[in-house]
């Protein structure tokens, strides 16, 4: 008991770190995220498809070239479009990576195996100096 009292901050740090790791694992975070460079490699080497889960107005302000826009709220009504992508590596993105992690979890439950969230989302893509397009070449 003396150890805990004398090292209270160390104990709190250890418990907090463990809880965060466990939370990440339970959320499907282990191996479900890719960095901007890993995403670029998947797109160039394995023809990964990009799924942007932001709303259409946000998508129109700038998105990865060739990205499909299917907001999370429309997953059920667009199930046929998503089904066609099951055999393809899929990179899911949103503005910061939070909605995309939820979408990855949903897609994994639907049987998608190679589905990843773009870590940091469009914000990280921009920060890395990678190009976005506003052209309507994204597949809707």
Instruction: Let me know the number of strands.
Output: 5
CATH architecture of the largest domain: 3-Layer(aba) Sandwich
Number of H- or I-type helical stretches: 7
End-to-end span in angstroms?
Answer: 60 Å
Low-confidence region ranges: none
The CATH topology of the largest domain is Oxidized Rhodanese, domain 1
Class derived from helix and strand content: alpha/beta
Mean pLDDT: 86
Largest sheet: 5 strands, parallel
User: Which value, in Å, is the CA radius of gyration?
Assistant: 18 Å
Fourth CATH level, the homologous superfamily of the largest domain:
Rhodanese-like domain
Please estimate the helix content. Answer: 40-55%
β-strand percent reads 5-15%
Strand order of the largest sheet: 1-5-4-2-3
The SSE string, one letter per element, is: HHEHEHEHEHEH
**Whole-number total of structural domains:** 2
**Principal-axis shape:** elongated
Tell me, what is the CATH class of the largest domain? Alpha Beta
């Amino acid at each position: 008991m003396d150890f805990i009292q004398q090292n209270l901050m160390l104990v709190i740090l250890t418990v907090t770190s463990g809880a965060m790791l466990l939370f990440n694992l339970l959320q499907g975070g282990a191996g479900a995220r890719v960095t901007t460079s890993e995403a670029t490699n998947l797109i160039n080497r394995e023809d990964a498809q990009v799924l942007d889960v932001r709303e259409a107005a946000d998508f129109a302000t700038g998105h990865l070239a060739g990205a499909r826009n299917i907001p999370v709220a429309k997953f059920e009504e667009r199930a046929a479009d998503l089904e066609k992508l099951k055999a393809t590596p899929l990179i899911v993105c949103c503005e910061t990576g939070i909605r995309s992690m939820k979408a990855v979890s949903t897609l994994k439950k639907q049987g998608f195996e190679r589905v990843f969230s773009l870590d940091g989302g469009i914000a990280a893509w921009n920060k890395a100096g990678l190009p976005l397009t506003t052209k309507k070449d994204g597949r809707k």
